[in-house]
Specification:
By secondary structure, the protein is mainly alpha-helical. 49% of the residues lie in helices and 0% in strands.
């Protein structure tokens, strides 16, 4: 990511990040059929364990949701990005440029090992 130095760039980046957090929270509740409002999920709240208590099947659903939103394919080694909404946004922002410039290789998702 390039360094932001101008106030307008910083404001634009912050707005983009807030929107992405909101979009991912909505995706989480829709993709997993959660009976909570997306606003109930905080940006740093753990999604697994004591957080939303998601499991490995949910991680697969989140990977599908990320692909649907951002056309970003995740491999089974990318489970750490599901730690929180913020880590998901960080991963998408870090990989958007490569997604925009590389063709889709058609990778398939099989399973996720959350203990790795």
């Amino acid at each position: 990511m390039e360094t932001l130095v101008h106030q307008d760039d910083i404001v634009a980046y912050a707005q983009k990040r807030r929107q992405m957090c909101s979009d991912i929270k909505t995706m989480i509740t829709n993709q997993l059929n959660l009976e909570i409002s997306p606003e109930f999920i905080t940006d740093d709240q753990p999604l697994f364990g004591r957080g939303l208590e998601l499991d490995s099947i949910d991680a697969l659903e989140l990977a599908i949701g990320i692909y649907d939103l951002y056309e970003l394919t995740l491999s089974d080694g990318d489970t750490s990005i599901f730690s929180s909404v913020n880590t998901m946004v960080d991963h998408v922002l870090e990989n958007q440029d490569s997604v925009d410039s590389e063709p889709d290789e058609g990778g398939q998702l099989t399973s996720f090992d959350l203990d790795a």
